[in-house]
Amino acid sequence: xxxxxxxxxxxxxxxxxxxxxxxxxxxxxxxxxxxxxxxxxxxxxxxxxxxxxxxxxxxxxxxxxxxxxxxxxxxxxxxxxxxxxxxxxxxxxxxxxxxxxxxxxxxxxxxxxxxxxxxxxxxxxxxxxxxxxxxxxxxxxxxxxxxxxxxxxxxxxxxxxxxxxxxxxxxxxxxxxxxxxxxxxxxxxxxxxxxxxxxxxxxxxxxxxxxxxxxxxxxxxxxxxxxxxxxxxxxxxxxxxxxxxxxxxxxxxxxxxxxxxxxxxxxxxxxxxxxxxxxxxxxxxxxxxxxxxxxxxxxxxxxxxxxxxxxxxxxxxxxxxxxxxxxxxxxxxxxxxxxxxxxxxxxxxxxxxxxxxxxxxxxxxxxxxxxxxxxxxxxxxxxxxxxxxxxxxxxxxxxxxxxxxxxxxxxxxxxxxxxxxxxxxxxxxxxxxxxxxxxxxx
Length: 442
Hints:
Largest sheet: 9 strands, mixed
Strand content: 25-35%
Strand order of the largest sheet: 1-2-3-13-4-14-18-16-17
Helix content: 25-40%
CATH superfamily of the largest domain: Zn peptidases
CATH class of the largest domain: Alpha Beta
Number of domains: 2
């Protein structure tokens, strides 16, 4: 941490917004899949006065809050009455997907008298964290008429059983070795596998007539709810914090910006861009490397009577905060972190830096982030990887390169990233949302 950054407030003495954190925990529980995440965010936006636009409809240039849903992605924005065709955007970028186990096209399988579900590994999952854990199943069903039906069985239904230590005597000395194909298939009952069994079960659970489902996107999730943790409850443990913490904070901040005092006179157009498929490269029609964000921003400019020149002027003044989780210093593996950069839980949001452009932050972006945190009265920290460790990446560099938009990578510090259950400071989600609100207000 540099001397110019505010020191993190000690967690034990730092009061946090329990209401915000409680709402985050409800959001995590309501969002076992990207499809559920955007539905939960849209519900909050609707309550704040936002209205959904369909991409197939003509858009007008009226002021107010709007949002677009496409699969597991959501783009929402608020146009103040004072906005011109070349008013710049302030964008909070995030992603809705998390590493998990996803159901294969022919799911019904089994062996030795056990009924199983065939799954595929999505993203960089910590495989061992899915073992011996009670799992539900959720996603969306596509019906014959092309409509979608969300489904969530949020009760113990499946389990990936670990091999007993008696049959793997060296597991505690040589480490657990998992074959992604052979060892990660969950059980969900006894007997012989029957083709179509899972689909019939899910149709019954969601009230869909049998045989009406022609497509599906399904995934497993831990049914253990989020919970406060620690002697003073200064931590939160829960699923999918990477990156639903940022989706929730961005939604909260955008709603506050659109309904706050002076919203109609904002000097910028605040935007939330929540993409799918970040965990496997963002290359999809709902990912950050797809055309969705650019299409929405462009149509917003043109619907307000703008030209290509206005679009260029708006983009030139636009800034994006790419908000994703980063690594808190690990008490048992301190040597894996940079010696002088140790982000701590409840130390406030982190600025993520990598000179090889795995993160998009530069010096001017640092100044933008510092100004937002100062305005919000929020402490902040810096994250950079140990030179001996490969650095992950985010939607930040993709957004910057694809749209020519100045982008800054930020987030909150967590432990157990990509686990089925992650850990963060209970203060940090509220601190992040406060900083994002200050940024969105320009």
